[in-house]
Amino acid sequence: QVQLVESGGGFVQTGGSLRLSCAASGLTFSGYAMGWFRQAPGKEREFVAGISWGGARTSSADSVKGRFTISRDNAKNTVYLQMNSLKPEDTAVYYCAAGTSYSQLTPRRIDYWGQGTPVTVSS
């Protein structure tokens, strides 16, 4: 069965850093675009960052540009999200996702979801 397992979330102060990891199994990892989404309390799940199957192309939401970096290691079946200069507004549950289309990484086009890892940024 397909599994996406996130790790690396936790508590951090404003301005701190965290690195999230997502380990994939049960699928041909290199055949999927990967993304990170987040959902804050009372809000809809939103796109954070995406990366193409080979890692040559990346994209990110305006709210995190210059602070977050997505990367992947296909040999390890793992995608990462390096988060720097964290703000309280970044507090959310972060979800790893796999989809067939890099250009259309929206919730309705995602094939597989991880269980989520919470990130809390305190002031």
Break the fold down into its secondary structure elements and pairings:
Layout: E1 3-7, E2 10-13, E3 18-25, E4 33-39, E5 46-51, E6 58-60, E7 68-73, E8 78-83, E9 92-99, E10 110-113, E11 117-122
Parallel strand pairs: 2-11
Antiparallel strand pairs: 1-3, 3-8, 4-5, 4-9, 5-6, 7-8, 9-10, 9-11
> Uncertain runs with pLDDT below 50, 5 residues or more?
none
Principal-axis shape equals: globular
- Main beta-sheet strand count, sense and barrel state: 7 strands, mixed
Average pLDDT figure: 96
| Main structural class | mainly beta
Sheet-strand content, in percent, reads over 45%
Q: Can you count the helices? A: 0
Distance between the termini: 40 Å
Question: Secondary-structure element order, as H and E?
Answer: EEEEEEEEEEE
C-alpha-based Rg, rounded: 13 Å
Based on DSSP secondary structure assignment, what is the total number of beta strands? 11
Helix content: under 10%
